[in-house]
Amino acid sequence: MSPLSPDARHAMFTGARTANTFDDTPVTDAELTRIWELARWAPTAANSQPLRVLFVRAGEGRERLVKHMDEGNRAKTGSAPAVAVLAADTRFHEHIPAVLPYKPQLKDTFAGNDALRSGTASFNATLQAGYFILAVRAEGLAAGPMGGFDAAGMDAEFFPDGRFHSILVVNIGHPGKDAWRPRLPRLAHDDVVSWA
Amino acid sequence: MSPLSPDARHAMFTGARTANTFDDTPVTDAELTRIWELARWAPTAANSQPLRVLFVRAGEGRERLVKHMDEGNRAKTGSAPAVAVLAADTRFHEHIPAVLPYKPQLKDTFAGNDALRSGTASFNATLQAGYFILAVRAEGLAAGPMGGFDAAGMDAEFFPDGRFHSILVVNIGHPGKDAWRPRLPRLAHDDVVSWA
């Protein structure tokens, strides 16, 4: 039996849409913190939790961000009440003794294997980006995820020591006027699902 | 305001755990299809939807699967009522004219740029894997995601034409005896979240 009410299923999955405009209702720091407080509990490999979240409010920080967005994403990113830059921590393994106390030596395994460390960081931060988008919705807010930005420029701007690599930018707010484009079709069951 | 009840927040995020054992309650094909029917609606770049799902029931298919799992994952994967192999479709762009009808020419952009196509496939399929795990929970089932398997062996076994690349294996069922290990700590707010 689903633990979600029909309204919750609609808000989280079946009726949720990527918002392209936002109204003036502010998004508070407490709301943004609550998004992270939900998303943080979903699972990652070896409890690695490589996702890092930079919340960018309106003002000077937003101007620094918008210039790295693709042209078509600038207006909406400039006007969203809040924006999250999601990034992967390439040195997440430094936290392993704290987050995986029964196997602290995994820190050294990651330290000695760049390909494993980098693959674990990207894959698990991206899984967590999926959780994060659904957590935005779970807080009653609309999410507008965007991959269209200059990642190298964004990293140089906000993460100049090279440790974090930005993977996704998510506008967060309450939907405004004409927020929704017509819904795009999803693939048919048999194009996606098979059985063995 | 959150569209989720306190029970739903608990079931989806704050109280959900990775199950390591499963009881004998079957998981029906209808339940598995409903997981996909929820997860399919969450967003992907250019509506690309590269995730593919192979549901493996008990029996001969499961035997073929278990032998590619890491040693420590074999017992639980063998005994789960259902298992999903999640994969990225490296030729997802063939569906672009159907899923992105206002920009069908993006198919050719992806066809001519292997790095862009492969990056889009992995990143978005992984985001969708995050949605999928939460959709399992939204159907009232426990998910047990595992990265510990021989991906090349799995692909040769189930996707021999080379088109799909497996990214994650997820056990699905109702929690059994001693299903939960002690909960591992999550990173502190200030280790993850920053503000600009």
From TrEMBL, chains A, B:
Q: Where is the Nitroreductase domain?
A: 17-161
Record's keyword terms, sorted: Flavoprotein, FMN, NADP, Oxidoreductase
InterPro entries listed in its UniProt record: Nitroreductase (IPR029479), Nitroreductase-like (IPR000415), Nitroreductase_HadB/RutE (IPR050461), RutE-like (IPR023936)
Coiled-coil annotation reads none
What's a single GO MF annotation on this record? Answer: oxidoreductase activity
Key word Flavoprotein present in the record?
Answer: yes
- Record has Flavoprotein as a keyword: yes
Q: Which NCBIfam families match?
A: PRK05365.1 (NF003768)
Under what name is this protein listed? 3-hydroxypropanoate dehydrogenase
